[in-house]
């Protein structure tokens, strides 16, 4: 999950070290990891008892996440116990080992599923759920950072027409992987072009494994990819689509 990128940032805004430090060995990456942990704690994705360590006298800066750049999260000093760190690390290692044991079997399931889709040219049905606000979305979304419309997010000088958010979606515990990295529309601001158009999420297909009482089934979910301004079929704006 630490490899998930902030989808509200363009490639031009990411430092080379942030792109290449996959193993998170640098001090900057470790600091960003603590910022992310605190953010997940603040939005309710991690329990309130989660210990974070962000020291105010750190010589490094985290430019990996938009919410850090915009100052939406405060630095804090922590005197966390080393035993807690060790226990937490041991649990993470055990979880990683369990996931690795399932990796080959799950990847084969996914490849078989892709082959079936290509052959039959049909998309697997999207299952419903009662979780979250939108019943058509499997799991629950947690927004980590948002950009308001009318803001230039890169050096091109072009403005975004829709407010958008970087979100993580947590799937039910019988799904693998459990988390999806998404870019979605800000549901608190769904209009664009002064109300003559509407913001909508565009999706991409994502293959995940669902454990149905011990039987592993590969299914297709729709993952938020970007937010676009869609002109309504009326008035003069329709004629601009030429």
TrEMBL record:
Superkingdom assignment: Eukaryota
Ranges of compositional bias, category Basic and acidic residues: 11-22
SUPFAM superfamilies given in the database record: Cystine-knot cytokines
Spans annotated as Disordered: 1-23, 75-95
The protein, known as: Uncharacterized protein
């Amino acid at each position: 999950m630490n490899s998930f990128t902030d989808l509200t940032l363009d490639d031009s805004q990411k430092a080379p070290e942030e792109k290449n430090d996959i193993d998170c060995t640098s001090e900057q990456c470790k600091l960003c990891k603590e910022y992310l942990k605190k953010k997940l704690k603040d939005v309710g994705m991690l329990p309130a008892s989660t210990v974070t360590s962000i020291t105010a006298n750190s010589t490094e800066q985290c430019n990996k996440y938009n919410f850090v750049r915009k100052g939406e999260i405060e630095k804090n000093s922590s005197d966390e116990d080393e035993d807690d760190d060790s226990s937490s690390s041991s649990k993470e290692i055990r979880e990683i080992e369990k996931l690795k044991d399932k990796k080959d079997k799950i990847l084969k399931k996914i490849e078989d599923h892709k082959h079936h889709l290509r052959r039959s040219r049909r998309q697997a049905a999207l299952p419903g759920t009662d979780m979250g606000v939108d019943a058509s979305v499997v799991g629950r979304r947690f927004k980590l950072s948002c950009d308001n419309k009318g803001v230039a997010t890169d050096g091109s000088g072009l403005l975004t027409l829709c407010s958008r958010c970087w979100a993580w979606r947590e799937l039910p515990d019988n799904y693998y992987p459990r988390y999806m990295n998404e870019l979605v529309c800000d549901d608190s601001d769904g209009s664009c072009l002064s109300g003559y158009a509407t913001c909508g999420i565009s999706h991409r297909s994502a293959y995940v494994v669902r454990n149905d009482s011990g039987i592993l089934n590969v299914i297709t979910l729709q993952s938020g990819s970007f937010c676009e301004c869609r002109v309504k079929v009326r008035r003069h704006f329709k004629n601009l689509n030429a």
